[in-house]
Each structure stands twice: as structure tokens, then as C-alpha cells.
Amino acid sequence: MSTAKKEYKRITTKTLVDMKQNGEKISMLTAYDFTMAKIVDSAGIDVILVGDSASNVMAGHETTLPITLDQMIYHASSVVRAIERSLVVVDLPFGSYQSDPKEALRSAIRIMKESGAHAVKLEGGKEIKESIKRILNAGIPVMGHLGLTPQSIYKFGTYTVRAKEEEEAEQLKEDALMLEKTGCFAVVLEKVPAKLAEEVAKSISIPVIGIGAGGGVDGQVLVTHDMLGMTHEFSPRFLRRYLDLYNEMTKAFQGYISDVKSGDFPNSKEQY
Predict the structure, then answer these.
(1) Structural domain boundaries of the chain?
(2) Which of 47, 80, 165, 213 has its CA 20 to 30 A from that of 117?
(3) Does the annotation count 190 as an active-site position?
């Protein structure tokens, strides 16, 4: 049941739980730099994810695996300096938490202390439970991530939809419940069947944020550069492009080049 939208001066982890209870959908986008984060925050987004997708979007890597903890802290610091309202969540990068709960805690502490972010996000279920518990015990909020977990791409071998088979679907439901019981404040579900995602969202009290998980969840997340149409090679079914900035920017650059070459720029009003 949806209610009138409440105005929030500052989004916190508690705000998101309240929004779920009030039937208000949660909006979430990525940002990796000061300028973009300032625009996204000013527009009124609820959550900004400093995603390890920066590995693809900002650095041009094929996967999210190469990005380092130091690089994630750099991007997160840039974002945090820009925001006034949004909750900033930062991905723990591949290799910084999977094998050792103590290392996971050290990684999370570095992100929180050095960037000023508000929470961290980890990919996985029962196999990383101890890392999540260690981080939560230090007072650091954790967002979970289930379904397609891009840091495990070489294990899966494909970016296809996850949890289509009953066994994997049951494990996903168990992991979602475990994340809630362990103390996570929210969970992202990526590329899972819409019916399953809705079932998970109804079965737990913490918000479920979907990407390629249908409309029956508590909120949505997209990569900002994708939804603005700055990227054009990537066109999954779940992506809605709100602008075509790739072509618009190309036209602007070509116009600038033409004006410089012709001597039209700068004109008499554009000089001192």
C-alpha cells in the first residue's frame, strides 16, 4: 500500500527501512566522481552506490575484478564530498573480504575512515557470513548483494539470469533471510526472475533493491552512465535509457571542433 511521499532531509539506513514499511519505493544510482554525485544528489536520489562497476565505467576493464581498495576509496571520497542528502554505499572490491573476516573488517574500516561513506556492500550469501558479522560488530552498516554477483563472473562463466532453477532459488531465499537475521540493512538482487525477487522482498523486513529483478521489490538501482545513454554497447533488457548522451555529447564535441577549426570560437564576446 503506497502512501504520500515523505520529505527526508538526510537518508539513513533507518530511513530505507521506514520507506519499505510505508510502501515508498527506494531510488538508487551509481556515482564515482564529485561532479556526477553532486547532480545525482541534488536531483533527490535516495542512495548513491559507489560501485565496483567503476572498474568498467571509469577504467575500461572487462570485469569488476581489477579495481583495488585504494581506488574504491578514491572514488568514494570524491562522491562523499559532493552529497548533502543521499546515503552513500561503497562496494568492497574483489579480494578485500572473501577469504578472511579480519581482512574484510580492515577493508571496511578503511573505506569508512578514509572516504567518509555511510555503509559498505558485499556480494554473496552464507559463504561470507562471518565477514559480514565481523563488519557489523564494528558498527559498520552492510548492504548485501545476491543473484548475479559480478565479482564471481569466472565462477558463473556468464552474466545470465541467476536462480532460475529451484535449487539455486531456494538457496537465494535462504541467503536473503540470513542477511536479514545477521543484521544487513538492505540487499540488492541482480538479474533474478521477477517472481522470485518479489517473493524475497515480501519475506524479509529489510529493503530489497532490484536490478533486472522486476518491479515487485522495494527499490531499483541502475548504473548512471547506462541510464543516461553515455554507454551504448551495453543493452540488457532491464536497462531504460532516459537520455542519449552518447550522441548528444558527440554532437557537442564535433560542434566545438568545427568552431575552433573555423575560427568561430571564441568570438568577440568570449574573450577579454
Answers:
(1) 13-241, 244-272
(2) 213
(3) yes
